[in-house]
Write a structure and sequence with these properties.
By secondary structure, this protein is of the alpha+beta class. The chain is 24% helix and 33% strand.
């Protein structure tokens, strides 16, 4: 009996450990699948030695490449010989080769990344890990006949993924704070904030969204937080001015004198300050300075990628900040090389389908694409003039846009490929394929290994549209990529910061501009600068009733009750009344044609809707069709097209009823009687006088 009990207990312990280890795995690792980098389907390769080059974006720091790997899901032709093999290279260095006979028909292969040098990635403007998957495929010893069978193929599955392991080392340095593993984080701020401080916090919150979900970021104030609650978190960020840090509860409060002593050098009001302290199992990052500007310096040092990785101690004075590099799109016509887009060492070799795929955001090319031509510069193994099945092909989003026969020169000097505007999406796959398939006769005559290289100075010649006004959420990110400010009301709330962070982070991802951190303004500064500028504004507020006269067109006037009615069905799609908690997002323009995104909430519960609305909007950014989004009680936003009059807004606020004027005859009856008698007597006198005068004239 005891043995059975022990067996049951052992079973539960094993199950618990298994679940625990699974959860631990999910917390420590970040997965990037082929779907995440733009592949909408499996990749099929043909030929004797086919190859596919993949580029994966990777973080600049915090990754333990010794325990990270590439997981390849693939399948191969079932008629291949046991001597066919698979080869995988990482950053142009071969790291894995195996015979087909040693793997199953649908193999899953894990490729360690321990040879990857973190220093090389950190120096790159856009860190990309290059992985090439290829192989040698044969059916018989006669590879020329094998080519003719069309049975030489392999498939790279879409679920293949890069698995990155975050470093296990818990170091007490600033740079390691964001590379530690944590499931949730607490941000502490002063209870009363101004727009500038809120902006500094927003930058850090935006950075955190690359690591954890928005619902796992919690806010509290210096003055109200309980010390025991702080200790429930492994990671905490306290951000505010040096004199405000005294409001933190003991033992987390810090005096300015302590900071000066730790600086061990002159500490001026212009200096930003960053330092980390450990309190048991809680690591606290302090982001501070003597004024708003110095606090902003500290925040900028954290979110600027190249500056952040240099914070290799537990204390740092920040005296200089590199300006954020955001693509400016100066002028309507310009060139962008592959090198500028982060693609280097673009080379492939083999026999068959040799394809190089690059994942490019529309906003990396232009705010609004007018026309795009690609100029290709390449060198490859020369082929004989009689060779019939050698081509270089160019694809945009799986559509063949150019095909040129390979020749004996072995070079391509500026081949112009026109890329149709209608093929572009928000995210695009751009592919260059060397197709090298000798027939059986050519194969027997001469079969050499083919090598093809695309020079990184190949470039996109871009002409952008002059369209600069956003009237629909679908083109929202484009219009707000440059000259954009985030505007907060005079006393911003944590919900405002979270909503703005979600929107900014979404623009970063869809534009692939990791240094997109807009500056901050107050309402007064916005109204003072909008008249003679081409600024764009993302305005976040609560319970602010906007004046319709301040805008060229205000989709919804929240100072009135309204109904939104479909023009086609005539049905009421949404109805608003004054006491309803609501969050609203509206795309509009000022009277001076500045693009404005109004993100506002009304009612106490509406503040929570504001965060949800911004989060939902950010997940679907660039694909939402409409100019108004509303969240009130539902789990998802309602989107309307009021600008195009497809959904009409009718204001139902009734005007103040005025009582009609009534004459109260009974109240003034004596006055009326006297007045009547006066009129009768007067008429009588008039008639008598006129009759007497007529008699005299007649006698006369």
């Amino acid at each position: 009996m005891n043995k059975k009990i022990y067996s049951i207990l052992l079973f539960f312990v094993v199950c618990f450990l298994n679940i625990f280890s699974t959860n631990l795995f999910s917390q420590n690792f970040k997965e990037i699948s082929l779907k995440d980098i733009g592949y909408q389907k499996d990749i099929v390769l043909y030929g004797i030695t086919p190859a596919q080059t993949l580029f994966f974006p990777v973080p600049r720091g915090g990754i333990d490449f010794q325990n990270s790997y590439f997981e390849l899901h693939m399948s191969v032709s079932t008629i291949l010989s046991d001597y066919s093999n698979i080869k995988i290279s990482v950053n142009d260095v071969p790291v894995y080769t195996a015979f087909i006979r040693n793997v199953s028909t649908n193999p899953i292969i894990k490729i360690p990344l321990n040879e990857v040098k973190l220093e090389d990635l950190m120096m790159s403007e856009k860190p990309l890990l290059k992985i090439e998957v290829g192989g040698y495929l044969n059916i018989t010893d006669d590879r020329c006949r094998d080519l003719a069978t069309q049975g030489l193929w392999m498939v790279i599955k879409q679920k293949s993924k890069l698995v990155l392991n975050y470093s296990e080392q818990l170091k007490n340095t600033i740079a390691d704070f964001f590379t530690d593993k944590f499931e949730r984080i607490l941000i502490l701020t002063p209870k009363r904030m101004n727009p500038n401080l809120a902006g500094s916090i927003m930058w850090i919150n935006t950075r955190l969204l690359d690591l954890i979900k928005s619902e796992n970021i919690t806010y509290s104030s210096f003055e109200e937080i309980d010390p025991s609650r702080i200790q429930n978190y492994s990671h905490v960020i306290a951000i505010g001015k040096t004199d405000e840090l005294m409001s933190l509860p003991v033992p987390f409060s810090i005096e300015r004198g302590e900071i000066s002593n730790q600086a061990k050098q002159s500490f001026t009001p212009d200096d930003g300050v960053l330092f980390v302290r450990l309190f048991g199992g809680t690591k606290v990052l302090y982001v501070t300075g003597d004024n708003d500007k110095s606090v902003q310096k500290s925040s900028a040092a954290i979110v600027n990628p190249k500056q952040f990785v240099k914070l290799l101690s537990n204390f740092s004075l920040v005296r200089y900040i590199e300006p954020f590099k955001i693509k400016s799109f100066v002028g309507n016509k310009y060139k962008l090389t592959l090198d500028e887009l982060g693609f280097e060492r673009i080379q492939t070799k083999g026999i068959g389908s040799l394809r190089i795929t690059m994942f490019i955001s529309e906003l990396e090319l232009a705010k609004y694409i007018g026309s795009v031509d690609f100029y290709l510069y390449s060198k490859y193994t020369p082929v004989k003039q009689t060779f019939q099945n050698g081509f270089i092909n160019v694809y945009l989003n799986d559509v063949l846009v150019e095909s040129k026969r390979l020749d004996q020169t072995g070079t391509i000097n500026g081949l112009m490929v026109s890329l149709p505007k209608y093929l572009f999406k928000k995210m695009n796959t751009f592919e260059i394929e060397f197709s090298y398939f000798p027939d059986e006769g050519e194969c027997r005559d001469d079969l050499t290994q083919f090598v093809g290289e695309v020079y990184s100075y190949s470039y996109f010649d871009v002409t952008s549209d002059n369209t600069g006004k956003a009237s629909n959420f679908s083109n929202f990110p484009n219009a707000f990529l440059t000259n954009t400010y985030v505007v907060f009301q005079s006393n911003p709330l944590p919900e405002h910061i979270q909503a703005a962070s979600s929107i900014v982070n979404a623009i970063q991802k869809i534009s692939k501009q990791e240094q997109y951190f807009p500056p901050i303004m107050s309402f007064a500064e916005m109204f003072a600068t909008m008249e003679n500028s081409n600024n764009n504004y993302i305005v976040v507020s609560s319970d602010v009733r906007y004046n319709k006269e301040s805008f060229e067109y205000l989709p919804l006037d929240l100072s009135q009750n309204f109904k939104i009615i479909s023009s086609s069905t005539k049905q009421v799609m949404f109805e608003y009344s004054d006491n309803m908690p609501i969050a609203v997002m509206q795309l509009t323009k000022t009277l001076t044609s500045n693009n404005v995104l109004l993100v506002s909430s009304y009612g106490q519960e509406g503040k929570g809707y504001l965060v949800k609305l911004a989060d939902q909007f950010s997940q679907r950014i660039g694909t939402i069709d409409g100019n108004v989004a509303i969240m009130s009680g539902a789990d998802y936003p309602l989107v309307f097209k009021t600008a195009e009059a497809l959904d009409k807004v009718f204001y139902t606020t009734e005007p103040v009823k005025q009582e009609p004027l009534k004459i109260r005859w009974d109240k003034f009856k004596y006055v009326w009687i006297i007045l009547v008698w006066v009129i009768i007597i007067g008429l009588s006198i008039l008639l008598y006088t006129r009759s007497r005068r007529g008699v005299r004239i007649a006698r006369g």
